[in-house]
């Protein structure tokens, strides 16, 4: 413990950020293992008006990787305690991260029919 504290002090905030990232990665792994996920995974749409921060782990103090805009779609793997584990592209790499459940609409398993996937009918096309 003493060595870790001295190391954190020696490298400054960068070391503190690394320790926070490590804690969030461990939390993410533990939660992902503890919760059986959706099989198949679900399509989910961002409904949060101001966008939805994507966190490294299921905790608001975990680093934000990016913010999803309202209307974007992600793959939902599991829900636990108000957090959704999602799959998405971050900086060109596919990965898993966490978002607040309240900011998503869980739609349906991929491949299933759902009204949100139907093309809009033009009003003039009605008889």
TrEMBL record:
Signal peptide boundaries: 1-19
**Keywords from the named record:** Signal
User: What protein does this entry describe?
Assistant: SH3 domain-containing protein
Organism equals Inhella proteolytica
């Amino acid at each position: 413990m003493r060595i870790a504290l001295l190391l954190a002090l020696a490298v400054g905030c960068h070391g503190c950020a690394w320790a926070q990232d490590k804690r969030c990665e461990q939390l993410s792994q533990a939660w992902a293992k503890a919760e059986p996920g959706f099989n198949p995974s679900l399509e989910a749409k961002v409904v949060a008006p101001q966008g939805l921060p994507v966190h490294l782990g299921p905790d608001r103090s975990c680093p934000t990787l990016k913010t999803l805009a309202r209307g974007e779609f992600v793959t939902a793997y599991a829900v636990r305690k108000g957090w959704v584990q999602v799959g998405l592209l971050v900086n060109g790499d596919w990965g898993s991260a966490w978002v607040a459940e309240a900011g998503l609409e869980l739609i349906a398993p991929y491949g299933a029919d759902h009204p949100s996937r139907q093309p809009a009918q033009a009003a003039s096309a009605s008889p």
